[in-house]
Amino acid sequence: MVALGLICSVVVAQSSFVGAQNEEGGSQQLSEVLLRDELIGDQESLLNVYRCLFNIDTQVVPGGCADGKPAQAKPDPQPFSGTPTLRDIEVRDELVADQESLLNVYRCLFNIDTHAVPGGCTDGKPAESKPELTATPQPTATPQPTATTTPDPELPTVSARFVLPSYTAAEGTTAQISVHLDYSAPGRTVTIPLTSSFGGGATESDFGPLPTSITFGPTETTKTIDIAIIDDKLSDPGESLTLAIGQPLPNGVLQGVTPQITIDITDTGVTPVTVRFATSTATVSEGSLAQLRLTLDRAPGRTLTIPLTYAFHGGATESDLGRLGYVDTTIDFGPNTTSIVVGPMVVDDGLVDPGESFTVAIGRNLPERVTAGIPSQVTVNIDDAGVTPIKMGFNSPSATASEGSTLLLPLGLYRDPAKVVTAGRTVEIPLEYSFHGGASAADLGTQPTSVTFGPSDTNMSISIDIVDDGLVDPGESFTISIGQTLPDGFAHGAHTQVTVQISDSGVPAVEVSFGQSTYTAAEGTTAQVTVELDRAPNRAVTIPLTTAFQNGASAADFGTLPTSVKFEASEMAKTVSFAVVDDQQGDSGESITLAIGSNLPDRITAGTPNQATVNITDTGVPEVKVTFGSATYTAAEGTTAQIAVELDKTPNRTVVIPLTYTFGGGATAADFGTRPAFATFAANQTSQTISFTVTDDQQSDPGESITLAIGSNLPTRVTAGTTNQTTVNITDTGVPAISIRFRTPDHTVTEGFTAYVRLSRGQPWDDSLTIPLTYSLGGSATAADFGTLPASATFAAGSFTATVAIPLTDDDLDDTGESIQVSIGTTLPEGFEAGSPNQVTINISDADPKQLQVQFATVASSTVTEGSYASTVICLDDDPWREVRLSYTYSFEGGATVDDIGERDLSQTFAAWSDCYPVVVWINSDDLDETGESIVVSVKQPLPDGVTLGTVAQVTFHIIDAS
Questions:
Q1: Structural contact between residues 583 and 620, judged by C-beta atoms closer than 8 angstroms
Q2: CB crowding 562-575: b at 16 or more within 10 Å, else e
Q3: Phi, psi (deg, nearest 5) at residue 90
Q4: Which residue from 123, 405, 681, 844 lies 20 to 30 Å from 249 (Cα-Cα)?
Q5: Candidate from 129-133, 178-182, 214-218 with smallest mean pLDDT
Q6: CA 668, CA 822: separation in Å to the nearest integer?
Q7: CA-CA distance, 142 to 131, in Å (whole number)?
Q8: Share of the chain above pLDDT 70, in %
Q9: Contact at 8 Å (CB) between 23 and 89?
Q10: Measured between alpha carbons, how far is 831 from 926 in angstroms, rounded to an integer?
């Protein structure tokens, strides 16, 4: 029953659209009327269930209530007579919407099935505006809803609503707002009060005269209000006006499903802006960036591109500016930006050319309502650097390097005063070496005799390997000098040589590692782990060790753990040992990891493996999971229920599993015999059967059940598995037979597609139900014309309907007149009988598939606020009688990107009997001020065979900025 509420709003939307597409009447309109009559019956049945369950409005339940349920089963819809019209469909659509509204009131009032309420519930009422509950509850009901005024029975009851919940209008235009009366014309003159409220900074001055009411004549059902939107020539986006149906309403008039409408105003104003330079003159040195600030007198509220022009004086040319024509010929201001620095690079040309300057001016072709202020230009005087020699030198006159390491000595270029420069061409700088304190060329690896600078290099490093000779020879050093013969234009600078002191080790470099990465030790034994050096250390060294526990192990599982291991001068292998405690518990998988510590002695490094894991073999009792054999069982009244309780392995001891019981569907302890409180397993048992009798109370009380659960006080190392409870559904022997019938009329399906038929049952049983099917072939049809024919149809637990899919083979033959008849089998489950119709005929068409047209069922554009869902509806113009799969594409306008949307529908498969579905996309809230964004949802091409695209091929969602 809950599932029915979830689909109602979608069915209403699709029904209204289909009705509007079939203005010529005929069999399609009759099908639409019959479909709505069934839905109205289903919804009224669910309303009666709520009324009886919560003891509210029970006077309107046919036959009243019995034991908290409707006394009468849901009747089949009355047959329709006459010629169906569009008004027949519209009347039913209005009734379906009213039923859904009242269902949502009940759901929020009694906190049941609230997930089915659009927008959820607030303070016990639907969050989205709906008509107030008009029924009066019984005095004994808890809680009691607040009753509203009962309409005069002599006057027709009408519901006043706006046709649309939202509307968009530009400044300088007129918004036309429609108000509608549902159910029928009022039969009298009624005046509906209206209220106005403003949003986003809007005031009454932004609009023409605002209505305070609207009057309907006795035969009028729709009225239009014209509201002028004033163009105030200001930049004030985000303004809106909300009209709402006020109170009190005339007698017999209710608020409808859209009691208010919000008119979002599209702003057309443009802010005037003045742009100027911060100063009229500036000075910049060659080789530096000019810092020229350009300002606006106010935030523009839009993106502005300001053109710049350049003029050169005193011998300066375009080549003196490195970035001219690249980024600085235009400057872009964002909507909130009022200051930007223009920074052309002034090139150091190495020439003596004083007196150069250039002028940067604001260009003429300025954006709309942007004017140039004073100063409109700035003259930049260039401070000439002239020609000085490039000097070179080391960063420092001294350095230190250890034996066995690689030394990097930086050599840099500069001009006085200290200014880093490039070589401007490829040059080779000579190097010279000298040795001191017993050092020689043998103490160095490769010795570069020169260093080369490329045209754009300012620093180069000399790389020299310091050989570890394994000797104790302190005091060694060497000097690297820049050679005397330098390229033209280069001179010696500070630090023309560097002396490197060699740090002598005198001891070998040694790697320490574990003998292997894993070991195994049983509880109650001693673990032994080997630590090794790759050579004798020639001195006593102590290696630090760390320990870490895994998989539930702790210090209590071991004896004293080693924190280090010591090697003498000639030792290369040592064994560390520690006890593994037998804790007499089943705790398999425990382990401990030893690792080489970080604070190692000088010239000792960690090798591979640098850690070893000791896995502990457990001797305790095993861990066992207990579950029920199945999540559900069925037992008839007067029989014995038998439930399997299972362990996932033998427990190796006697374990006693506690059991608990709860009753469902009106069942009590009197419906059952003695129920065992425990399931006891011997050491080698893994399965037990729990039995108890189900009393035949000779009453009609379907839906009773009892749930068994694994108790909480389980034995040590025994846990409850996934199926930790099971429900025994009781088959009632006093229940009258339930009717099974086909819900789908005879229809035609094209070869190569799948035919679908639906069955319904008189009420949604708590169990699943399987119904046998039989088939007979008509015309020249044979078994080769079909895929596998389902032998049965299955109703899911709680469902009114079941669906059968019959694949039709495309045999490429001209064999018209074929058909297949599907019938309900004769051997039905106990308590069920075949209703009418008990068979349906599928006529097989040789022609092309049924031609369908698809389009969005709403207006081509709408607005949506960031941080909410945008939605529309897509529909086929007729019932497809086959599966049709469509995909959607998303495109972005006005600066929107894929980051502006979250989860979204990418495709939709239309079932055989469904012709409308919702399309939903989440609009992210990005906290940015970025008006004008929009998302376009389109139907993806190519379309399936037999499907064409209608007029509304895409929908645009204009995003309202939430920031």
A1: yes
A2: eeebebeeeeeebe
A3: -65, -45
A4: 123
A5: 129-133
A6: 43
A7: 22
A8: 89
A9: no
A10: 59
In the block, tokens 């004073």 appear at 374
Q: How many CB atoms lie within 10 A of CB 440?
A: 9
Torsion of CA 200, 206, 207, 209, to 10 degrees: 110
Q: Which residues contact 86 (CB under 8 A, 6 or more apart)?
A: 19, 20, 22, 23, 25, 29
The residues, ordered by sequence, that sit 6+ positions from 835 with a Cβ below 8 Å of its Cβ are 739, 740, 741, 762
- CB of 787 within 8 A of CB of 809? yes
pLDDT for 487 equals: 86
The residue assigned the tokens 């069942």 is 667
d(CA 410, CA 458): 10
pLDDT at 154: 57
The Cα-based distances of 364 to 293, 297, 326, 512, 842 in angstroms read: 19, 18, 20, 76, 76
Which of helix, strand or coil describes residue 180? strand
| Range with the poorest average pLDDT among 147-156, 422-431, 517-526 | 147-156
| pLDDT at residue 323, rounded to an integer | 52
Count Cβ atoms within 10 A of the Cβ of residue 433 and give its class: 0-12 exposed, 13-18 middle, 19 or more buried: middle
Three-point CA angle 909, 915, 917, nearest 5°: 60
Say how far apart CA 616 and CA 592 lie, in whole Å. 8
Q: Are strands 339-342 and 497-503 parallel, antiparallel or unpaired?
A: unpaired
How distant, in Å, are the alpha carbons of 290, 342, 346, 489 from that of 349?
Answer: 16, 21, 9, 15
**Cβ 567 vs Cβ 574: under 8 Å:** yes
Structure tokens given for 67: 């034991």
- Contact (CB, 8 A) for 820 and 775: yes
Find how far residue 816's CA is from the centre of its chain.
Answer: 50
Taking the C-alpha atoms of residue 390 and residue 681, their distance in angstroms, rounded to an integer, is 94
Backbone angles phi, psi at 300, to 5 degrees: -75, -20
**Range 866-889 burial, b when 16+ CB lie within 10 A, else e:** beeebbbbbbbbbbbbbebebebe
Write the CB contacts of 819 (distance below 8 Å, at least 6 apart in sequence). 777, 778, 779, 781, 841, 842, 843, 844
Residues 411-425, mean pLDDT to the nearest whole number = 76
pLDDT digits (tens, 9 = 90+) for 593-637: 999 999 999 889 999 999 999 999 877 677 899 999 999 999 998
Rounded CA-CA distance 757/806 in Å is 8
* Integer CA distances (angstroms), 393 to 8, 408, 465, in order: 85, 14, 21
CA distance 275 to 294: 7
Q: How many CB atoms lie within 10 A of CB 811?
A: 14
Encoding tokens for residue 97?
């919407």
Predicted local distance difference test score (pLDDT) of residue 629: 93
Q: Which residue has the tokens 């003695």?
A: 674
Residue 122: how many CA atoms within 13 Å on its side-chain side?
Answer: 6
**For 317-322, what is the mean pLDDT?**
80
**Structure token digits, residue 558:** 């071991």
Q: Beginning with the edge strand found earlier in the chain, give each strand of the sheet holding 604-606 in spatial order.
A: 573-579, 526-533, 510-514, 604-606
604-606 and 510-514 strand pairing: parallel
Residues in the chain: 963
Number of CB atoms found within 10 A of residue 456's CB: 8
For residue 744, what are its two tokens?
Answer: 């789908």
> Residue 603's Cα: distance from chain center in Å?
54
Q: Which residues contact 480 (CB under 8 A, 6 or more apart)?
A: 394, 409, 431, 432, 433, 462, 464, 497, 498, 500
CB within 8 Å of 15: residues ≥ 6 apart = 32, 35, 36, 89, 92, 93, 96
In order of 296, 314, 330, 381, the CA distances from 290 in angstroms are: 20, 18, 16, 10
What does R_g of the chain's alpha carbons equal in angstroms? 44
Residue 696, Cβ neighbours under 10 Å: how many? 14
User: Which residue matches tokens 């980024």?
Assistant: 327
Q: What local confidence, expressed as pLDDT, does residue 17 receive?
A: 33
